[in-house]
């Protein structure tokens, strides 16, 4: 294969150096051949010796390409932002002491490696710097007499040195445009130098161009360094500037100390070091050739994807290994078998490689890809890329390896190579890479087969899918067949399967699956009900034979007897056998034979009579203990004589492909061996109850292969530890209370049908036995009696009690179904009026009654538990069963208190209402303590100023917030307008000759009471008689009153006035109250100094004089 120009580059590490002119200086005691090996174009050594390493030789490889290199070169802080595109040449400046880290170079001892480059000088012009080449390479242009040091490090914090290895930096010398006699020299430090391999270009004319090498000392920063110097001589005949073709090198150094390269040449002209290009003929191939490997994310398919490769630089034939093997190994058992689903070989440009590569499986967990020497020579500098995808995964293990940070499932694989050179295998370092599977729902079409005449509904959705599962944490996968297709032609059909996430129903996928329809070999499923017949002169075995054809729902029922023989001579003229076939409860066939009937008569009647799956055979047999049921091989155990002892004369058998299932009395459930309805076949489990025996039976609702009746199927594989079904057998004590379970048969999800059957055999069915049946999917639980199935009365209950009776079979009991009610009663109500049936829903059930455990109480507010005794009447022996439930009773008070207003109640005008409104009512009643009642006036301002009937509203409340409002009549009684108090005036002694005298007694007051309620006002007047002695002698004098000071009981004197008067025989107005004033009590107070006796006549006779003041109160102002 020819080399191609590479658009993506996964190259080797090397240098490109522009060198002109040699400088021969002093050789420092070592031979050039010790360091240098020069090769001819055919690989023959011209000078020097080969290198025999005593420790690993690492040739790092860049793992990325043009798109990733910008992220993998870490420059010093402040690098020019243009360092982000291809062809930037030397745009990025650096300075002395700066470090450059080249990452993503592979692994060593399981740790990632990088190259650390340190600059020993600072650029002096714009052409010196760092840039990116078009071939995913790094360009570094050096100053004259300056260079770089480099060392291989681990790509970890602080970049620790990789010790005890040799570093092989393979590269390319190339002459740029040069002038005649220009020389450029590159110097390699020899303190850790092991070997420099150099080859001459094929087109070089050795007579015209010659390489010169020397060992010498040069001074760097004032320190002498030992170097291997190389130079190119350009003869004078080359006058015109031109390019000289490449020549190649491989520099091997001890990595324990930094290696350095120093440039010498013309001032102002830089020397270019070019890293990571793959052109050129690499003269040395080390033993360490690590595999490049990257894990990838999967697509819509549940698979682990990897992109691996191997880079081989073009080299001489003698350096190619005899073979190179890439090993792919599953060391942690993440795959059931490591067989690649796809295996593609491409070169670095993505072009498919057509050469023969040897690929073989070394084991279930290891693959080997072998590249021969011819392959490697053809590849040359191209990258070999192998695309891998594996889908035979260990799903359970992968789903336990979820990375919460990256939100992916990781699938690790180990990659390494084995290099064979001269018959010796050398292993490279091993690289562990994680493929990543994203959380999603998955499923791929799995081409399937079906039989002619079957339907797509007979198929299991997951059987049509490969890798049908969900990887969303906490999710489950639903699957269903979308199309109902009848496979009635021998051709390929397309069936669509829908898968969806349970957590996110919007996440769905539809997968079209090819289904090839084929003719199926038909298997006959045969079962027998046999019995010993006592015929003419001996016995023979009669058989009722049941045949079903595989995958068909229709079968036949036949009788096989003995020609010329009767059934039983002792039953001559009497019915001996009766056969009735029921379909969905309706009779489709019925016959009977006497003991003396010829057996061939029954053969004729029941000659392959057509039956369907789940028909019921009613078999009447006068000697039931003689019958034996033998069902198909591989199914449930046959019904032997051990069970036939418990048979009755009338047996009912459910018939299907599995055989005869007794259903005189039975409990059946539907369950799923693999856990999910719609994804797996439906199984029916029967607990058949005979007179003294119990047994289990299972059949599949799928008309399929006999293996579907395997008793090793479990009750629910997805819920292995959960209880799925149980039957508990009870006895009733003398107190009519159920005892603890006497025996129990219990099935968990992990329990097999066979294990459950063994438990059932230990239970005993007897007349009157009580069983408790548990099944979580109660709508899929049925009770059978005489071949007829009845569903539960209440499908919300997971536990149901039944009574097994001889005459009525299985009877469902209701005592455990009675639900208590929450009852609210009124405080103080008559408890005897409460019906016990009001405390439960017992009226919905027959054969149960109830009584109160204790007397109902209504004398106290609050909530309490009222026990209700439930009596379940049983069918057998006039027995009954007692149980108790509790009803919650709440006593409330919703009755308001009552009272009536007292009759003929009066209140004097202007008097206050009673402080306690209760004083106005009587006949107070309530259903609680009346002493706690609260009385209050409503809408009352307390006004009693108007005579007549006043309506007083009174609210009566109890402690529960109930209240009554009364209107009470209160008569306001008015009074009159009266003078309540008048003063007496005593002037004591008056001296003869005095003409006036001021009153000496205390202040005087006059009081008027207005209780009329009219608010019309009033006027107070006074007149006075003459002063006279007892003998009638008169004294001329007058009584003078100055204005008094009015006050009122309501402290309102506005509108009340007094006047200055001199009393005489004519009435004078003393005090006046205008309209709406002067109500209640009004007082006029006259101070002493304002009361005087005036105009006393001189020369009056000595004596004690009296005069009368007449007070007049007028009812108008």
Automatic annotation (TrEMBL):
It comes from the Bacteria. It holds the Pfam family WxL. InterPro entries: WxL_dom (IPR027994). Residues 974-1117 form the WxL domain. This is WxL domain-containing protein. It comes from Carnobacterium maltaromaticum.
């Amino acid at each position: 294969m020819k080399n191609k120009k590479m658009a993506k580059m996964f190259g080797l590490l090397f240098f490109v150096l522009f060198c002109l002119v040699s400088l021969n200086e002093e050789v420092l005691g070592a031979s050039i051949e010790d360091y240098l090996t020069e090769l001819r174009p055919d690989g023959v050594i011209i000078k020097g010796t080969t290198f025999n390493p005593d420790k690993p030789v690492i040739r790092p490889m860049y793992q990325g390409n043009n798109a990733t290199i910008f992220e993998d070169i870490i420059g010093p802080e402040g690098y020019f932002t243009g360092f982000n595109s291809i062809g930037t040449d030397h745009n990025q400046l650096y300075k002395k002491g700066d470090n450059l880290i080249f990452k993503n170079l592979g692994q060593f001892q399981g740790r990632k490696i990088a190259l650390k480059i340190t600059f020993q000088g600072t650029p002096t012009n714009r052409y010196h710097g760092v840039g990116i080449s078009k071939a995913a390479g790094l360009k570094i242009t050096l100053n004259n007499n300056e260079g770089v040091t480099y060392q291989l490090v681990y790509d970890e914090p602080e970049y620790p040195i990789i010790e005890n290895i040799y570093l092989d930096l393979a590269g390319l010398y190339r002459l740029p445009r040069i002038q005649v006699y220009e020389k450029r020299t590159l110097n390699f430090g020899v303190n850790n130098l092991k070997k420099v391999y150099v080859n001459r270009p094929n087109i070089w004319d050795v007579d015209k161009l010659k390489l010169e090498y020397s060992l010498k000392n040069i001074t760097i920063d004032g320190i002498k360094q030992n170097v291997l110097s190389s130079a190119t001589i350009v003869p004078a005949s080359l006058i015109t500037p031109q390019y000289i073709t490449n020549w190649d090198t491989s520099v091997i150094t001890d990595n324990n100390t930094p290696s350095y390269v120093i440039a010498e040449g013309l001032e102002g002209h830089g020397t270019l070091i070019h890293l990571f290009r793959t052109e050129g003929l690499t003269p040395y191939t080390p033993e360490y050739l690590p595999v490049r490997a990257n894990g990838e994310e999967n697509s819509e398919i549940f698979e682990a994807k990897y992109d691996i490769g191997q880079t081989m630089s073009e080299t001489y034939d003698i350096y190619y290994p005899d073979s190179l093997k890439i090993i792919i190994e599953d060391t942690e058992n993440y795959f059931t078998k490591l067989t690649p689903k796809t295996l593609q070989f491409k070169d670095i440009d993505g072009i498919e490689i057509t050469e023969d590569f040897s690929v073989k499986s070394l084991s279930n967990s290891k693959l080997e890809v072998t590249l021969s020497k011819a392959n490697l020579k053809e590849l040359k500098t191209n990258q070999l890329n192998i695309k891998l995808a594996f889908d035979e995964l260990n799903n359970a293990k992968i789903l336990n390896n979820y990375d919460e940070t990256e939100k992916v499932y990781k699938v690790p694989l180990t990659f390494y190579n084995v290099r064979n050179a001269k018959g010796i295998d050398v292993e490279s370092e091993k690289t562990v890479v994680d493929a990543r599977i994203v959380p999603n729902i998955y499923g791929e079409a799995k081409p399937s087969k079906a039989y002619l005449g079957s339907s797509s509904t007979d198929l299991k959705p997951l059987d049509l899918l490969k890798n049908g599962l969900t990887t969303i944490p906490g999710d489950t996968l639903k699957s269903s067949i979308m199309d109902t297709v009848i496979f009635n032609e021998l051709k390929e059909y397309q069936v669509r399967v829908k898968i969806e996430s349970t957590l996110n129903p919007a996440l769905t996928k539809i997968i079209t699956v090819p289904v090839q329809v084929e003719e199926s070999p038909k298997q006959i499923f045969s079962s027998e009900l046999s019995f010993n017949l006592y015929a003419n002169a001996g016995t023979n075995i009669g058989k009722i034979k049941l045949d079903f054809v595989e995958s068909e729902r229709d079968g036949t029922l036949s009788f096989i007897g003995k020609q010329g023989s009767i059934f039983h001579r002792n039953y001559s003229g009497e019915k001996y056998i009766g056969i009735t076939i029921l379909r969905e409860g309706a009779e489709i066939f019925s016959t009977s034979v006497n003991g003396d009937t010829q057996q061939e008569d029954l053969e004729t009647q029941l000659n392959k009579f057509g039956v369907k799956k789940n028909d019921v055979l009613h078999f009447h047999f006068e000697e039931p203990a003689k019958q034996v049921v033998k069902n198909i091989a591989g199914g449930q155990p046959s019904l032997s004589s051990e069970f036939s002892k418990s048979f009755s004369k009338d047996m009912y058998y459910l018939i299907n492909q599995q055989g005869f299932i007794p259903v005189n009395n039975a409990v059946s459930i539907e369950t799923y061996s693999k856990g999910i309805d719609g994804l797996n076949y439906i199984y029916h489990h029967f607990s058949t109850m005979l007179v003294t025996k119990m047994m289990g039976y299972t059949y599949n609702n799928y008309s399929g292969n006999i293996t579907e009746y395997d008793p090793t199927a479990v009750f629910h594989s997805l819920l292995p530890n959960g209880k799925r079904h149980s039957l508990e057998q009870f006895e009733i004590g003398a107190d009519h209370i159920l005892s603890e379970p006497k025996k129990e048969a219990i099935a968990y999800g992990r329990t097999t049908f066979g294990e459950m059957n063994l438990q059932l055999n230990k239970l005993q069915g007897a007349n009157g036995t009580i069983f408790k049946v548990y099944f979580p999917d109660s709508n899929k639980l049925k009770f059978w009696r005489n071949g007829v199935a009845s569903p539960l009365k209440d499908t919300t209950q997971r536990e149901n009690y039944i009574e097994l009776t001889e005459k009525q079979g299985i009877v469902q009991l209701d005592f455990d179904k009675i639900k208590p009610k929450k009852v609210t009663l009124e405080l103080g109500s008559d408890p005897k009026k409460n019906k016990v049936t009001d405390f439960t829903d017992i009226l919905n059930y027959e054969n149960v009654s109830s009584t109160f455990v204790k007397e109902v109480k209504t004398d106290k507010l609050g909530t309490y538990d009222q026990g209700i005794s439930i009596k379940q009447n049983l069918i057998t022996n006039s027995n009954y069963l007692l149980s108790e439930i509790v009803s919650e009773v709440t006593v409330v008070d919703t009755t308001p208190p009552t009272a009536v207003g007292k009759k003929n109640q009066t209140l004097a005008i202007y008097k206050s209402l009673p402080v306690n409104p209760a004083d106005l009512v009587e006949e107070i009643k309530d259903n609680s303590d009346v002493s706690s009642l609260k009385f209050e006036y409503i809408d009352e301002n307390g006004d009693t100023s108007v005579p007549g009937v006043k309506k007083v509203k009174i609210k009566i409340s109890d402690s529960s917030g109930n209240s009554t409002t009364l209107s009470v009549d209160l008569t306001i009684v008015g009074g009159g307008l009266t003078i309540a108090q008048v003063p007496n005036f005593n002037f004591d002694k008056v001296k003869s000759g005095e003409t006036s005298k001021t009153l000496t007694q205390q202040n005087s007051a006059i009081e008027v009471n207005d209780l009329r309620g009219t608010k019309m006002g009033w006027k107070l007047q006074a007149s006075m008689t003459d002063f006279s002695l007892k003998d009638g002698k008169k004294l001329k004098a007058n009584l003078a009153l100055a204005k008094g000071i009015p006050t009122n009981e309501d402290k309102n004197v506005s509108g009340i006035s007094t006047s200055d008067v001199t009393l005489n025989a004519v009435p004078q107005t003393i005090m006046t109250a205008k309209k709406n004033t002067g109500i209640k009590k009004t007082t006029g107070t006259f101070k002493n100094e304002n009361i005087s006796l005036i105009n006393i006549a001189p020369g009056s006779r000595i004596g004690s004089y009296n005069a009368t003041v007449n007070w007049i109160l007028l009812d108008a102002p």
